[in-house]
Automatic annotation (TrEMBL), chains A, B, C:
It comes from the Eukaryota. It is found in: Mitochondrion. The gene is TRF2-1. GO terms for biological process: fatty acid metabolic process. May play a role in fatty acid biosynthesis and insulin sensitivity. The keyword Transit peptide applies. One of its GO terms (cellular component) is mitochondrion. One of its GO terms (molecular function) is hydro-lyase activity. This is Enoyl-CoA hydratase domain-containing protein 3, mitochondrial. Keywords: Fatty acid metabolism, Lipid metabolism, Mitochondrion, Transit peptide.
C-alpha cells in the first residue's frame, strides 16, 4: 500500500504521464489487508492502517490523469474498495468481487464506503452481510466494472483503452477529469455553472483550437 | 436550441397540454453543438451558448408535465445530455450515445453533469475519457433509456406511452411530477415529510375523489 | 401496518434476534394502502396514515439487524416502497413491482421517495407516470431485488441467506449495519473517517479477535 502510494505521488510530478493502469503481479488481484497484521498490532496501529488505505483511495479518485484498474482473479475487501475507487475497470470472466470481512468477525466498513457508492444499495448490503462474492457478470451488470473479457485478454483490453486515452489531448483530459470530480460533488445547478466555465476555459486551449480546426478540416489533430 | 426553449416556454402556458415528446426531424437525434460556431466566436459568446444549454436542460427537467424523448440514431454531446435530462427515453436498436468532445480536444464537461448523474460513474467516465459511444443495449442496462425497440417502432412506442400518460388525471400528474423532483433533492426524512403532505393534498383533488370512487365501483374514472 | 410496526419494536428488545424476514401470508405480497380507507376518512386521518407508513419505512431501514424481504406475487404502492426500504430482497419469477396510484388519481408520491432512491430515475418515473408494473427481471436488472427464483423457491432462498447471516458474528453484524447506514449519509471523506473508526472499534470485539484467530488457524470461528 505504501509502495503504491509512493509510486502515485512520484508519477504525479511527471508531466508526460497520460494514463495509469493498476494491476497485480499475481493471479489474485488483491485479497485486502493482511489479517495477521491486525492480530499482532494495537488500536493505534490499526487506525494508521485504515487511514492510510482511505488516503490511498482518495489519491486514486482525485488523481490528475485517468486511472484504469486491470483485475486478474479475485478483488476482496480493500482490493474491492480499490476497484470501486478507480475510473475504469476491466476484469476477466473468472474474477470475483467480495467484502468478506464479516466471515472473520471484521465487517468491511471502509470498503463499504466505496462499494456502497458504486453498487445499488441491496447488492452492496448482501455482499457486506454474507461475505459472499459477486461474479464478473454481476459486477458488469451494476457498473462495478466496465468490461468483462476472457482472462487471457485482460491486459490487452486495458492497454487498448489506455492507448486510446493516451492518444488524446493530455491538457484537455486533465482539465476534464478534474471538472468531472468537482462537479459531481455539487448540486446540479452549481455543477452546470462550474462545468460551463470549464468549457469556456477549455475552448482557449491550444489543443482545443487545433482539435476543432482538425475536425472541421476532416483531418487528424496534432496535439501539443 | 433557442427554438426548442421558446416552444417549451409557450407550451407551459397552455393548460390542455398533458405530455411532451421531444424528437428529431432527421435520422440523427442530435450531434450536439456545432463546432464551427465555437471556432468563429469568442469566450463571451461561448459562455452564452453553454449557459443557454444548461438553462434548457433545467427547463426540461423541471417541466410541468412529463417529457418523453424519442431517439432516432445517435445522441451525442449536448444531445446525450438532453436524453439524460428527460423523464422517459425510447430509442431504436441502432441508437448510439456518446460524449465525444475529447476527440476534438473539448472535454464534454457540461454533458458530464447530466450523464454522470444518470449512469454509473465508471460507465460515464469511459464515455467521457475515450469519446466512444455506448450501444442502445448498454444504455438500457444502466437506465439511460427505458426501452429499446426496432428503429421503425420508436415513434409508435413513444406515442403509446404518451397516450397512456395523457389518459390519466392531468392535475394529479402535475402535482406528482413536481413533488418527485422536489423530494429527490432532499434527504430522505425531509423527502417523506414533503411527499406525505402532497399525498394529503392530492386526496382533496376532484380527480382523486373520482378516481378512488371509480376504483371502488370497478369502473373507469372520468377525469376533470 | 400497525401490527408490523409493533412486532418490529418488540423484536428490537430481544437480544438473540440475528436477522429478520418480512413476508406475506397470502399470494400477493402487498397491494398498498386500502383505498376504501381513504374514501371514508378526512385529511387529518390521511396525514396519520402516511406519517405512519413513512415511520415504518424509517424503522425498517434503520433496524438493528439485517432485514430480508421475501416477495410472493405483486408488490404495489406502499408494498413496493417497503421492498425498496429493506436490505435484501428475494422475489419469484412471477413477481411484479408497481406504483399504480396515478391510475386512481392518487400519485404514488411517498413510494416515490424510496423507489426514486433505489431505481434509476427514468425507470422510477415511468412506473410513477404510467402506473404500469415492472417485471421481476427488470427489478433485478436495476437492483430493486437481489435474486429472482422460481416462485416455489422464494422461501427456501430467503432462508438460506438468512441462515448464512445468522451464522455469523451478531455483534459485528449490528456494528457493521449501523455504520453502513450512517456513512452513506455523509460525504465520502467524512464517511471514511467514521468507517475507519468503526473498524478500529470492531477489532477490539471478542468475536473479531476469535474470527481472525480462527482464520489464521484455518478453523471455524466460535462466536460469542
Amino acid at each position: 500500500m505504501t509502495e503504491l502510494e509512493n509510486q502515485l505521488l512520484k508519477f504525479e510530478n511527471l508531466n508526460n504521464i497520460r494514463v495509469l493502469i493498476i494491476k497485480s503481479s499475481s493471479n489474485t488481484f488483491s485479497s485486502g489487508h493482511d489479517l495477521l497484521e491486525f492480530d499482532k498490532s494495537n488500536s493505534s496501529d490499526h487506525k494508521k492502517v485504515f487511514d492510510k488505505a482511505s488516503n490511498l483511495m482518495k489519491i486514486i479518485e482525485n488523481y490528475f490523469i485517468p486511472v484504469i484498474v486491470s483485475i486478474q482473479g479475485t478483488a476482496a475487501a480493500a482490493g474491492c474498495q480499490l476497484v470501486a475507487s478507480c475510473d475504469i475497470a476491466i476484469c476477466g470472466q473468472s474474477s470475483l468481487f467480495s467484502t468478506p470481512g464479516i466471515l472473520a468477525g471484521l465487517f468491511c466498513s471502509t470498503p463499504g464506503v466505496a462499494v456502497g457508492r458504486v453498487l445499488p444499495r441491496k447488492i452492496a448490503l448482501e455482499m457486506l452481510y454474507t461475505g459472499e462474492p459477486i461474479s464478473a457478470e454481476t459486477a458488469l451488470k451494476y457498473g462495478l466494472v466496465n468490461h468483462v473479457v476472457e482472462d487471457s485478454k485482460i491486459d490487452e483490453t486495458s492497454e487498448k483503452i489506455a492507448n486510446k486515452i493516451a492518444s488524446l489531448s493530455s491538457s484537455t483530459m486533465k482539465l476534464g477529469k478534474k471538472c468531472f470530480i468537482e462537479q459531481m460533488k455539487l448540486e446540479k445547478e452549481k455543477a452546470y455553472e462550474l462545468a460551463s466555465n470549464v468549457m469556456v476555459e477549455n475552448l482557449q486551449f491550444t489543443d482545443c483550437k487545433e482539435g476543432i480546426k482538425a475536425f472541421l478540416e476532416k483531418r487528424k489533430p496534432r496535439w501539443n
